[in-house]
Each structure stands twice: as C-alpha cells, then as structure tokens.
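Notebook entry, structure prediction.
Reason for the run: the old model in the group folder had no record of what sequence produced it. Starting over properly, with the input documented here first.
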Amino acid sequence: MKTDSRILDGFNQDIVPMIMSKYGLNEVDALRKFIHSKTYQLLLDKTLQVWHFSALAIFDMWENEYVTGDLTNSLYVRGDEL
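New structure, fully documented this time:
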C-alpha cells in the first residue's frame, strides 16, 4: 500500500527547499534527489508509517543517506537519545 499523495506532497514541499538551501541545488534536481532516495521509498510504504516523523527527521534521514550512502546513520533511525 502506498502513502496518500497529499502526505507525500507535503513532505516534498517541506524537504525540497531544505535540500535546495543546504546543497545549492535547483528545485528540479533537489526533488529528483529526494524522490529517488531510499528515504523516499520508506515514505511511500504506508505500512511503515514513516510519515509520522517530522519533516526535519525525514530530512535528516535523507541527508545521512545522501552524505554517507546509508540512511541508518540518522539518529532517528538509530534511535539515539537527543
């Protein structure tokens, strides 16, 4: 089952500008990098309910995947205490 497209659109609207700002990408490239990520694939899977995380948490997961190649380096996936 796929996550509702309205939820995905909300994450796109929140996270793409973060990617653009931090990495100097244009909107199209930032969106492509986000939607082709493993992080986005987790968001698509409704059964995982990753959409319960905040946009900042999803951005952290994406950024860890982008920088290190492994989204499990994110403190949100590891479950570290803040």
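Summary: Residues 5-23 form the longest helix (19 residues).
The old model has been moved to the deprecated folder.
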